[in-house]
Amino acid sequence: MKGVSFLMTVAILALASSFASTYDPSLLQDFCVAINDIKSGVFVNGKFCKDPAQVIANDFFFSGLNIPGNTGNKVGSNVTLVNVDKLAGLNTLGISLARLDFAPYGLNPPHTHPRGTELFVVIEGTFLVGFVTSNPNKLFTKVLNKGDVFVFPIGLIHFQFNIGETAGLAFAGLSSQNPGVITIANAVFGSVPPINPEVLIKAFQLDKNVVEYLQKAFVPN
């Protein structure tokens, strides 16, 4: 099991690195507002670079992906992301990695990564996965088993659902040091401040009581 996980992880990193250079001179955060006074500038597109003379081996090291994530939540899944915030050496390299743990019938809900393509590799479990294209919203879906690989193109809504009766495990490579994630239900019904209910009533063709219920259900903790 450990050997398989290691080989899968190496494969993810190798494959994801092939498309890393395509996106990571691109936007590495949600926005970067211009400022004329450089003395007031705080952020760059990405992270500031450490003096190479001060770099150490631990800047390129992360430990802990062998530890299962807590799936005791409403959706029954947990994502442990290793991005540039966790592993400083990823800066400018255009790649990150995630461990995904699933309880039986656990779901990674429909979401999108605005800055990264995702390569998903099944280590244990049976998964129903899929993504939806831009208009006219065609669904591509597949059942995956141990050792299978599926790619979710950058920016498209996708999901992973463990349809087995046992716990599931997967790893994912992403083509950005900071791919970002927008979980659709949370973003629409749990935004802060909340979206005007009349907008959601019309957009989703729902009763006002249903919209109000959903907005209460997705209020951030």
TrEMBL record:
Oxalate binds at residues 108, 113, 118. Its main location: secreted. Disulfide bonds join 32-49. Mn(2+) binds at residues 111, 113, 118, 158. Transmembrane segments: none annotated. It comes from the Eukaryota. Residues 63-212 form the Cupin type-1 domain. GO terms for molecular function: manganese ion binding. Residues 1-22 form the signal peptide. GO terms for cellular component: apoplast. The keyword Glycoprotein applies. CDD domains: cupin_OxOx. It is found in: Secreted, Extracellular space, Apoplast. May play a role in plant defense. Probably has no oxalate oxidase activity even if the active site is conserved. Belongs to the germin family. This is Germin-like protein.
